[in-house]
Model the fold of this input.
Amino acid sequence: MKRLFITILLVFPAIHLFAQDMLRQETMESPAPPAGRCEVTYIANSGFIFASGNTRILVDALYLNGDIWETPSKKVQKAITSGSAPFKNISHLLVSHYHEDHFNPMLVSRFLVNNPKAILVTNSQTDSVIGRVYKQDPQLKRPDQLKIITAPMFGSEIYEANGLKVKCLVQRHMGKDDYKVERMGLLIEMGGKKILHIGDADYTDENFAGYNLQDENIDVAFIHYWFLLDCEGRRIIETYIKPEKIVITHIPYDELRRNYKRIKEYYPDVEVFLNHLDKKVF
Done:
């Protein structure tokens, strides 16, 4: 009996310390960055989480099939849709367009059901795709969780809520096959930072000339790799965007390392996320 009592005394502190470690791990899993700084977590392809203070938004990160592009793992997809750590308390899901390497209607529907305080911000084309899923999902409170951007092509519309401001830029998708695809560039203001996410915008003057982005003092621009490898794309960046920092997005598996080296020749301080769930603070 005495031996048992001594064993319990020895084990109890270990259990207590283990519990403290678990609690510390949970609370430190995704600490909120202070105002004036933005923490960026890479999901896959053009998908990211932007976080500052109590504001956490998800951009182009819920999809199933990236084809030649990187795709979130099943584990990450499940964690995001369920709102599990480290994807708790995401207030907004921003979707630039309906292509399957940026968006999946079933995953987005599940995310909104499981995260009833979250709001989807997207355009009418994407809404027309996800609308079929809404009809099959009676749990989804669509009017309370949806903001549809209705600005015309080359127009813009501003969405604001709880310290978040997003200027949605309606632009053409790059490529002749996708000429009629409307997609949104996203000028995001949060935590004192200005972040531009251009998705798959074509590098044309008409896509950028009317927004005066060069006067916005953009802190970080998330730009797909075609821009940086093409002289016209670089001209657009230097004329219409002029960001302080560039992060590369949308790099195919087999071209990642090779193209990264080429891009560094033009932009030596460019940033790239090489691993899923990597974080950087800007």
In short: The mean pLDDT is 84. The CA atoms of residues 81 and 111 lie 4 Å apart.
